[in-house]
Amino acid sequence: MEGCVFCGGIEKDRVLFETRKWIAMYDKYPVSKGHVLLIPKEHYETFFDLPEQLTNSIQYWIKHIKNILDDKYHPSGYNIGVNCGKSAGQTVMHCHIHIIPRYDGDVEDPRGGVRGVIPSKQKY
Predict the structure, then answer these.
(1) Could you give the dihedral angle defined by the CA atoms of residues 20, 59, 7 and 31, in that order, rounded to the nearest 10 degrees?
(2) pTM (predicted TM-score)
(3) Pairwise CA distance, residues 36 & 16, whole Å
(4) Which H or E run includes 80?
(5) pLDDT by 10s per residue, the chain, length 124
């Protein structure tokens, strides 16, 4: 798709691995060491637009990425997230799944994890 940063070419030095359908690459603006994006090669705007064949393979590839990152960086946890739509914070309108390694002490109080997308709702 014209103008899409993921369709327009990926910086090869950021690629973790590539298949016929997927590319996994290190995030250009990582939240933590080892932050990876899993991206379908075909252009789909959001996770909800993916065909069933691709959604059925996501778990496999996320676990594959986790194994690679475990061996390379030894994180103590992970956040996995997908932003769908502008109101959810999506800025690149090509589906991509964030696999974010987490490390003991990387934030003072990690409780609430992904609930932090709305800071006032993170702690309960």
Answers:
(1) -140
(2) 0.94
(3) 8
(4) strand 77-81
(5) 778 999 988 889 999 999 999 999 999 999 999 999 999 999 999 999 999 999 999 999 999 999 999 999 999 999 999 999 999 999 999 999 999 999 999 998 888 888 888 888 888 7
Count other Cβ atoms within 10 Å, centred on residue 69: 20
Predicted local distance difference test score (pLDDT) of residue 124: 79
Q: Residue 30, Cα to own-chain centre: how many angstroms?
A: 10
43, 64, 96, 98: the catalytic one is 96
92 three-state secondary structure: coil
Give catalytic status of residue 96 as yes or no.
Answer: yes
Q: How far is CA 80 from CA 31, 66, 76, 77, in A?
A: 12, 10, 14, 10
Q: How many CA atoms lie within 13 A of 65 on its CB side?
A: 30
The Cα–Cα gap between 122 and 86 comes to 20
Q: pLDDT value at position 120?
A: 85
CA 34/CA 19 separation, integer angstroms: 19
